[in-house]
Amino acid sequence: MNKSITDRMLEEYDLFTTAEKKIADYVLANQKYCQGLGITELSAECNVAVSTVSVFCRKLKLSGFHDFKLELARANILNVHQSQPEGSPEIRAGDGPEEILVKTRLREEEVLRHSARMLDPEKLKQAVELLLAANHVLFLGQGNHSSVAMTAWTQFAVIGSKFQTVLDSHMQTIAMANLLPGDVVVYFSYTGATLEIMDAVETVRQVGAKLILVTRFSRSPAAEHADVVLISGAEERPLQFGSFDALFSQLYVVDALFTCYCMSCGQQLEQRRELVGKELSRKHL
């Protein structure tokens, strides 16, 4: 049986440098938490260089940091199932529909509480100010996060024609290239560290638009260039690409952003929403 990544860290501990031992110590003490960290955040938590984390992963005969997170997730799967106490929201093999319903609710409640703790009210206010000042706003995302961008647009489209979304990646580039200074891109990216988001960052900077990034990691590469970073609090394990928890936490940010925006617009906005509501009501049988 292949040894887990934690076993290998313990076996090779004496071969690590002082900086590498700091990484191993931190990961071994915070295994579950580390599954949700990016390489930049882990380096900051350990007070070492990003390059040191990369070398550490290669010493463990891994291709890179992403491979390290996958191995760490696999190592934790067995521990999670063995250590679940009664009443845990973690769904286990053998759970029936009733238990799944209860545990799903408990997990989503925790996602909301965690998201509320991590979302900075001052950052939310700054984001609203950018949206109010913009003549044009694009909601964008890739993969599952494009559905969050679509949901955000369907909310904001009720109150103004300046809000849009684009799903195709090529058309997203065209839409961003046609923005003007002061316009805004609201980009949903769990990691803030994909090729698409970094391409978007470059385009937004070139045209002089503003970037509001909704992400999990405050120290991600894209976050360094964003005008406002809104942290969505759910932790997504490496084997949970596009998890409902991550999407749910981003939808919480959308709801808060939309509500704050509406509160800042006053009576004129309410009249517009009432007009749209009347038009939509004609479609009901």
Question: Can you give keywords for this protein?
Answer:
285 residues; alpha/beta; five-stranded parallel sheet; 13 helices; 58% helix
Brief overview:
With 285 residues, the protein is α/β, with parallel strands linked by helices.
Query: Structural class of the secondary structure composition?
Result: alpha/beta
**Proportion of residues in β-strands:** 5-15%
Number of strands: 5
Number of helices: 13
Q: Report the C-alpha radius of gyration, rounded.
A: 22 Å
| Helical content class | 55-70%
Measured distance between first and last alpha carbons: 63 Å
What's the main sheet like?
A: 5 strands, parallel
Mean pLDDT: 86
Choose one word for the global shape.
globular
Helices and strands in order:
Blueprint: H1 5-11, H2 18-29, H3 31-34, H4 39-46, H5 50-59, H6 65-83, H7 97-118, H8 121-133, E1 137-141, H9 145-156, E2 163-165, H10 169-177, E3 184-188, H11 195-207, E4 210-215, E5 228-231, H12 244-265, H13 267-281
Parallel strand pairs: 1-2, 1-3, 3-4, 4-5
Helix pairs in contact: 2-4, 4-5, 7-12, 8-12, 9-12, 10-11
Structure explained in plain terms:
This protein is α/β, with parallel strands linked by helices. It is 58% helix and 8% strand. Helix 4 crosses helix 5 (50-59), helix 7 packs across helix 12 and helix 8 (121-133) crosses helix 12.
